[in-house]
Specification:
The chain has no helices and 28 strands. It is mainly β. The protein has a single domain, classed as Neuraminidase (6 Propeller). The radius of gyration is 18 Å and the shape is globular. The two termini are 25 Å apart.
Length: 354
């Protein structure tokens, strides 16, 4: 399974953790229709980060980088630029100008934008050992360390004033265990994190307009080498109103569902179902309570994002292998209509439509 999570930039070799979600859709119509993605030139050439504003030619942001994230307004792109001995978290305009380095570290995770576009959350650290979850003020570059440990997801509140994140106690538990926390961000110093869950089996929070959606894990029965099984639950930010959304029977060596993105009204959810050599985009409709494979078949289509109205899913072909033949595409939420946006590209991000 390809993991879009706050993790080191190295290629993930196994599906051991749920993906980190990029957050709910932009709370206001985006003035700029922007798409960013990672392209692989082939052979031993490094991956390249590209950005395109609809109606304009694409622009290369980095000759060696990954994990681009488009701001909700579509005017900025954050991405990881690879270098030795350290990598960099970079923010650039959608036209490729005004590049600024916000952080330098051996490991730079996938950036997560706040809905108002003023903040970025990212995990930074060394290749091994404890990580730091940091929130940056995009305008000033000021940084605040929210927590240290081993993280499996982060998502801002709709008003951008709080941050939900998943944290495990040990590195080995990063995708197999943990709890959801919420921390206020007002002021120069962040507030005290509060437990939203306390069962040690809740990961990958995604903050929507009505509640926080996350994955509730349970250990697989009978087979020690199996992955943990995960189903979707929701909970209010104060820890009340917890309820199960899905009750799927997960096969051997597979895991899911993990939330990826929500529509503006919180009624359409994109999720991921993965495991060993397997990654599939799924959807959940809050109005019907139905979860389904996006395309209705096992075909390696993975999810990147969802439009603001929930009608369109940004996705990729090619499955879990980052360097396999892959294209960036869109599907209708029902999975019936497909459109190809970019050939030979992965890890796409958009401003809620393109």
């Amino acid at each position: 399974m390809r993991l879009r999570r706050l993790a080191p930039l190295a290629v993930v070799t196994a599906a051991l953790a749920g993906p980190v979600v990029a957050g709910a859709a932009d709370p206001a119509p985006s003035p700029i229709s922007t798409l960013a993605f990672t392209g692989y030139p082939g052979g031993l050439n490094p991956p390249r980060v590209w950005v395109a504003v609809k109606g304009h030619p694409r622009v290369r942001l980095a000759a060696d980088g990954s994990t681009p994230a488009v701001s909700p307004r579509g005017d900025l792109v954050a991405y990881a630029a690879w270098a030795r001995p350290s990598n960099r978290l970079v923010v650039a305009t959608a036209t490729g100008t005004g590049k600024r380095t916000l952080a330098t570290a051996a490991s730079v995770g996938t950036p997560v934008w706040s809905p108002d576009g003023s903040k970025l959350a990212v995990v930074v650290g060394s290749e091994l050992g404890r990580e730091s979850l940091v929130v940056f003020d995009v305008a000033t570059g000021a940084r605040r360390t929210i927590a240290t440990g081993f993280f499996n997801g982060a998502s801002f509140s709709p008003d951008s004033g709080r941050l939900a994140y998943g944290r495990a106690r040990r590195a080995d538990d990063q995708g197999f265990a943990g709890d959801v926390y919420v921390v206020p961000l007002a002021g120069i110093v962040p507030g005290t994190p509060a437990n939203v869950t306390a069962d040690g089996a809740s990961v990958s929070p995604l903050w929507g307009p009505q509640s926080i959606v996350f994955s509730r894990l349970r250990k697989a029965k009978g087979r020690r080498a199996d992955y943990p099984k995960a189903n979707l639950q929701s909970i209010r930010p104060d820890g009340s109103g917890r309820r199960s959304l899905t009750k799927l029977k997960i096969p051997y060596l597979l895991s899911g569902l993990y939330p990826i993105a929500l529509s503006l009204d919180g009624q359409h959810l994109l999720a991921e179902y993965g495991g060993q050599d397997h990654s599939e985009a799924w959807t959940y409709d809050f109005t019907t309570g139905r979860a389904r494979d996006l395309t209705g078949r096992t075909d390696g289509v993975i999810g990147y994002g969802i439009s603001r109205d929930g009608a369109t899913v940004l996705a990729g072909t090619g499955g879990y292998d980052l360097q396999a033949k892959a294209d960036v595409v869109t599907y209708s939420f029902a999975g019936t209509h497909r459109r190809t946006l970019v050939k030979d590209a992965v890890d796409a991000s958009w401003s809620g439509g393109f």
